[in-house]
Amino acid sequence: MEITPRPGYGPAAVVPRPSPAAELSRARRQVLDLLVARGVPTSVTTVATELGQHTNTVREHLEGLADLGLVERSTARPSGRGRPGALYAATPASVTDPAVQEYAGLASVLADQIARTSPDPRADALAAGDRWGRELVAREQASDATHARRSVVRLLDRLGFAPVPDGSDHAVELRRCPLLDAALRTPEVVCAVHLGLARGALDALGAPTDRTTLEPFALPGSCLLHLDATEI
Asked: What stretch of H or E contains 125?
């Protein structure tokens, strides 16, 4: 059954601009997320140790992120003999994307309005998110369900959720919440907006949504989004 938003709860279309981080591989995304979490210039050895990866592999990821402008490179202070090593830090562009800020601001206002005035906050939040998701992918097309799921993952990345999908994009770990403050105030509403957004985008791309669910904080510091595994 199609969800129709009630009058007064329809968000204006916010079409996020493409982000250089949108097409990152899972491994490269993990490196960037670690730098964002640390918040200070970090050596290749430290990143490799924390992620359990070989230093050469990590160095390649860091250089690739630097080429995209998501990481900045600096030189460590000399200590002892030998040439000082390189340090890497996430750039402001990788943390505070204007599109993320725009989405977070409008969605927070929407969630607060629904929580304050709606007789059925969850239903209205789902409906508003559904319509928003449809608008955000209105210019896209998907050839099959796999393509649709990947498009939704890219959308979530542009909106600031730092998604980490499994190999088939059926389960997606959402490692950031651009509406965290609002989610702490009204978790039922905010989570419903996000679930509705994923369902609306999937449906608009021709993929099934009957098994699309969202588990808030299913993992330490992360939510888990289950996208429908059925093929078109």
From this structure: helix 121-136
What would the pLDDT profile of 122-156 be if each residue is shown by its tens digit? 999 999 999 999 998 988 888 888 899 999 998 99
The residue count of the chain comes to 232
Are the beta carbons of 88 and 72 closer than 8 angstroms?
yes
Supply 165's token pair. 């999908």
Helix, strand, or coil here: 49? helix
Q: How would you classify residue 221: left for phi > 0, otherwise alpha for psi between -120 and 50, otherwise beta?
A: left
Here the tokens at position 221 are 């510091």
Beta strands at 71-75 and 163-165: parallel, antiparallel or unpaired: unpaired
Can you give the pTM of this predicted structure?
Answer: 0.62
Which run of H or of E encompasses 9?
A: none
**Residue 209 backbone zone (phi > 0: left; psi -120 to 50: alpha; other: beta):** alpha
Strand partners, 89: 72
Q: Which of 40, 9, 33 is nearest to 160 (CA)?
A: 33
